[in-house]
Every structure is written in C-alpha cells, then in structure tokens.
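Deliverable D2.4 — example input (structure tokens):
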C-alpha cells in the first residue's frame, strides 16, 4: 500500500459516522452478512432468548432492535448506494434520505453493555414531558406526564378540574407513549 493510499484510508475512516438503517422484517442478519461481505462495518446488536418448541428448547439470537442495524460509513453518495443496494435494506433512518448520524458514544455504550453481558430488553422510546402509560405492575394503566428530577423518572398525574398535580417515582416500571 502506498503512503497516499494509507493516508486516504485513514482520512476516510476518521470521517466515518454511524448511521441506522431500516431493514425488511426479519432480514437484519442477512443484511448484516451481505454488508460485511461488501466491506461495510456493521453493528447488529443481538440478545439471546430461550425458545421452547414441543420437541426441544433452544437458545436463539434475536436483534435487539427488530428491523434495524447500524453501519459505520463515510457519508458519501457511492458508499450510501453500496449500503442501500444490499438486499433487504429499506432506507437510512432520519428526517432526510441521507439519514442522521448517530453519536459514537451511543454505539459504544450499547457495545459495552453487550460485551459485559448486561441483560438488555428493548423499550419504547419516551421523552421527558411526554404523556405516558404504565404498562405493568401495580400501577398498570395509569397515565400521566413523564418528568425527570435528580436522575429519577417521575410520573406526574394531574386533576385538571382543581388544577393540581402529584408526582411519584416510577423507576422500574415499563412505560409507553400514549
């Protein structure tokens, strides 16, 4: 490899960013394999679940985020076309056709949790200030506004007629957007 090629490869690697791609349903692994064969760095986080059939029990790897994978690419048109032309890739995820870069730290946090065998489970994404419903437990079905104080999630329940609200900690409860 010449010095110019080595420098070009190093610059391209430094300009690379993580992007989420949407895949066809149940095509995540096939997409990841094909993109890796094309020389694209792919991250497909998986979780192992035990599945039981009538005749056997087996541990099976499932994508952590069904329908999505992550690619680390230099965001140039040629590279995007290479990713989009892989069988099973639907689109780059984001408000534009180019997708939105994902901060390196978010991918590294996810990788660190997986490497350390931390039990992960996907949850719906909810934002502070959003109206949510508790999905399970003693408070299942309760609705309110998700708030955050001092690193804790709080649920604010309001009685609009008297214009009063109460809040309580909801750490450990699964919530979903309403």
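Example output (designed residues):
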């Amino acid at each position: 490899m010449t010095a110019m090629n080595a420098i070009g490869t190093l610059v391209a690697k430094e300009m690379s960013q993580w992007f989420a791609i949407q895949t066809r349903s149940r095509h995540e692994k096939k997409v990841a394999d094909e993109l890796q064969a094309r020389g694209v760095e792919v991250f497909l986080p998986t979780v192992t679940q035990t599945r039981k059939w009538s005749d056997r029990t087996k541990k099976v790897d499932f994508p952590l985020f069904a329908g999505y994978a992550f690619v680390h690419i230099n965001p140039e048109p040629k590279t995007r076309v290479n990713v989009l032309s892989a069988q099973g890739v639907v689109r780059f995820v984001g408000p534009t056709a180019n997708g939105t870069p994902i901060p390196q730290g978010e991918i590294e946090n996810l990788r660190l949790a997986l490497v350390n065998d931390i039990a992960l489970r996907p949850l719906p994404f909810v934002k502070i200030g959003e109206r949510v419903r508790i999905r399970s437990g003693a408070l299942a079905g309760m609705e309110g506004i998700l708030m955050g104080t001092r690193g804790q999630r709080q649920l604010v329940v309001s009685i609009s007629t008297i214009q009063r609200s109460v809040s309580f900690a909801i750490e450990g409860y699964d919530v979903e957007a309403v």
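The chain is about 25% helix and 35% strand.
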